């Protein structure tokens, strides 16, 4: 039996959902539900989602009868749905996690939720009741992962079962309430052809990258935070022949390589006393004993750069990784700096020579002001000159303004042939067939 409630002055359900009345009714009804759940005890934990939804609807109906609230049937159903998500899912996060368009969810305390869609951040109207509400939801996420979050362990970085990543930092380190960052990943990684369709790079660049991967060139994907490095690395891996064995190494497993023979390794943080820590560098050293054809490092950020350079120089051609840098030149500077921090014993000249011999191509990717991800530069490392690593840019992103005043993607070819001997035979064949002209 349904009850006809007085119709309030809200113009739409969306307006009601953002109103103070909705928040107040939801919070008070939630406290009422918690007291009823305590009475039910362990029995509640055995209920299905459908049974919980029915329980919520009946209890909410009872609550509204006892505490006259100016809501109609549709609005009561909206409150019941939110309460059901609270009890069976992840509260305000559930809808965002279910939305395939959402890339990142950022929580700054209980009142601020920001979401990235298409590379652009917007603030959500939904929010949590208080900081304890945030912690309750976060701990529900972390519980199946076996990760601890409290004052003695106030930072957590973990991989979600669906392949996403969650990072949480709480008081006393986070001043204004819990800070939560959730990175979502597509269930089906983008293919190179899909990236061309999305305008990340053009067909000419795609063809060179395909040949570079198949010719076992060593590639670094360089870019800033949320620029699309992981998606690009996933796409490049599809060019690796199926007969080869790949070992991927990451801090938090994010790569989803569409390949038949992949061994995935993930570093392990230490326990509270620091014991049990296994770094990317440890995994990379061990991976050399696992007979890999190629090694893929999710992100080069520390001493593992030394082992990766040595692997690239000693028979593991075709290896790849990502690195945080704002340009191809900065990418090389960062690799050099990380190697120095890791205790490289040789001279500056010998380190640069090792980098120049190891790295064949740098793909620079960036996120533009409109949120679009674009390959900004395709650069080849050609060797050493006067103690400086030499490079030549093959393609550069230079958007053009069309007659309609709109910005259009455009990549300028520098008209230079790849220098790498690994690509020499392919490049000659391309030119003989008339397909090698760079545009």
From TrEMBL:
Query: Gene3D superfamilies, per this entry?
Result: 3.30.450.380, P-loop containing nucleotide triphosphate hydrolases
Ranges for the Bacterial type II secretion system protein E domain? 87-365
Q: MF terms per GO, please?
A: ATP hydrolysis activity
- What CDD domains has UniProt attached to this entry? VirB11-like_ATPase
Family, similarity comment: Belongs to the GSP E family.
Q: Report what the protein is called.
A: CpaF family protein
Upper taxonomic lineage: Bacteria, Pseudomonadati, Pseudomonadota, Betaproteobacteria, Burkholderiales
